[in-house]
Design goal:
Two copies of one chain form a homodimer.
Chain A lengths: L1 E6 L7 H15 L3 E6 L11 H4 L7 H12 L2 E7 L7 H10 L6 E5 L5 E5 L5 E7 L4 H8 L2 H12 L5 E7 L7 H18 L2
Parallel strand pairs in A: 1-2, 1-3, 3-6, 6-7
Antiparallel strand pairs in A: 4-5
Helix pairs in contact in A: 1-7
């Protein structure tokens, strides 16, 4: 399969980077084609200008290239830290600009003639790996788990991806090297299982 | 009161701009000090670099200025469109960079000696105006209302703001001029009531 990994963490030595490279290597070893896009390293521009937002606009080259990669992918993997219960801005800008109407989704009508969204991506599955520093129970009690709904229903579900799996690793700040090794093995297994 | 309005829409003729200016004018007429920051117009940089992310870093001047405005505010108003059930990337970058640890919030311990977040903002109330194009019932059924929890608990609640009110206007795309006028009056009344 053709699998796209999108990574959004500014520090090259981050655990997010370790996840992305470990998952990439496991998928390559399993015979998949894998593209890893490190948004911070390549300086992806998060800014969605008024010109670009206008209907019928033509995507700038950087956006076009990313959009083509998304459209071509059989599977998509996202790796990012939990910042304010959301992705970092650079990844939010990637969503704003790259998941284009008419390409990733379109507006149509359902059987009842009501307006509805029709997801257009050909990818059948997506995986989302996130990291945070709040213990899981406190996180759920205080904030819920907004990222789960955002990725499963509001983003990938919206674009027509039926299977969306997610794993959050926490608390990274208090983790031992041994636990992080286990987490990386978990992530690799999850990726090779979902994309089998 | 000293009230900060943060606006995030790329089009100067957007309904978001109409909300922000209408609310500003109503608050000025009520005798408040009001600062309106149009993030797109001023070219706010959403990118949170590895250097800036490092602990103990010094905020760049643009970020320092925004952070000081947040710390000085008695009330905060945010205006933005619903993009992927989240704020536009430029506003997400503002959150990532401007709400700094040790300033907007800090980590401490509660009565039981457990780690917890302690909100630090002096603002007692926040208002969030959002716009979308999906009819409300469909939106709630398909996606829930992630923005409500994000702003109330995950962002402003995290920073210690106790009262957070929100109004979503929808569907903007199918609204009449008369309805939009009513919405602007509603927004102005809501602002002058919350900040009385």
């Amino acid at each position: 399969m053709n699998i796209l990994i999108v990574l959004a963490h500014p520090k090259p030595a981050s655990f997010n980077h370790a996840i992305a490279t470990c998952v990439r290597d496991a998928l390559l070893a399993a015979g998949h084609q894998v593209t890893l896009r490190d948004l911070c390293a390549e300086g992806f521009d998060a800014n969605f200008s008024a010109d670009e937002l206008a209907r019928g606009n033509i995507a700038p080259p950087q956006v076009r290239e990313h959009a083509d990669a998304v459209l071509a992918a059989d599977g998509i993997i996202v790796v990012h830290p939990n910042w304010w219960a959301q992705p970092p801005a650079i990844l939010k800008g990637w969503l704003d600009r790259v998941l284009r109407p008419g390409e990733a989704y379109r507006f149509g009508t359902n059987d009842k003639g009501e307006g509805c969204v029709i997801g257009q991506l050909k990818a059948k599955a997506a995986l989302v790996f996130t990291t945070s520093n709040t213990p899981r129970e406190a996180e759920l009690a205080l904030y819920g788990d907004p990222l789960d709904n955002l990725w499963k229903r509001c983003i990938w579900g919206f674009c027509g991806i039926e299977r969306v799996e997610r794993r959050n690793f926490e608390p990274v700040i208090a983790s031992t090297p041994a636990l992080r090794e286990q987490w990386l093995a978990d992530a690799a297994l999850m990726a090779t299982t979902v994309f089998a």
